[in-house]
Amino acid sequence: MPRAIWSGAISFGLVTVPIHVVSATEDHSLRFHQYHRKDMGRVRVRKYCEVEDQEVTQDEIGKGYEVTKGQVVPVRDEELRELPLPTARAIEIEAFVPEEDIDPLRIGDGYYLQADGGVAAKPYTLLRKALERSSKVAVAKYAWSGRERLGILRVRDDAIVLHSMRWPDEVRSPAELAPPAERVSQDEIDGARLLMERMSRDDLEGEEFTDRYTQALEQLIEAKREGRQPPEMPAQEAPEGKVMDLMAALEKSVRAARQSRGEGEDATVHELPKKKAPAKKTAAKTAKKAPAKKTAKKPAAGTADSATHKDKTAQKDGAAHRATGRSAAKKPRRSA
What we know:
By secondary structure, the chain is an alpha+beta fold. The protein has 7 helices and 11 strands. The protein has a 7-stranded mixed beta barrel with strand order 1-2-8-11-10-9-7. Strands 3-4 form a two-stranded antiparallel ribbon. Strands 5-6 form a two-stranded antiparallel sheet. A hairpin with a 4-residue loop joins β3 and β4 (54-55). α3 (186-198) packs parallel to α5 (246-260).
């Protein structure tokens, strides 16, 4: 168990829970030292006193606040611990809020809060179970490292966890980083949601979530230590450049996600929605499929077409009249 980095109490109304604060995370990154390239001699940072021009040890170093160029006010660690603040010795719970109301950008490092002795076991368990059943987190204030801080308390398994938080004015606004406004179609949104569905999972366990950089770095160091050739980086496909067709990129991503799951091309999935034809083109196609019936238009009066139409009508009437006359002339006369 790692050592306690702070000891105090949780103040919950009139309930006090003595606790130790223990780091909840570990850093497994490989650390490098600085060396002189010429002879591989270790390069160290040494602390010197400007007045005496000599190196000093850590025990001789203290804190101080520079008021003016020549005036420094010394502040001892004991004085910081004795500040007249409730949060100097306790984690003061101020409120309880739904966890989804906390912006993740404000959440920092996590620490386990360990009950300090048997006396603290019951109030510690009481607070933990109350937090579990409320589905809320506790917002608290505490003073560490020379300043008052904000934090949240939540439950993880059988322990209470303290997360440090940034104050509201410590989070920068992203307004100036927003990209230019772009229109996104409903088909593209549906395609992105389908891709999210194909990539969804219930846990974060597996080979995809291992630190491959540290593994590769360890292999590099081991190979150089043994005088072997370091492993080569596997060949990667060259990037295709700027993606012009967003729908095609989404369809390709869905197929890749399907293959990574071992589902194959024949797996039953919802296909990406097809693009709908614009309204104008649809209207044009409808017009082509159902052409309008041709109707003879009457020529307007007073036009050349109107006169031609009248002549043709008169000719037809005259021909009909002459035909009637010839028919009447052929009939025999009746005797008196």
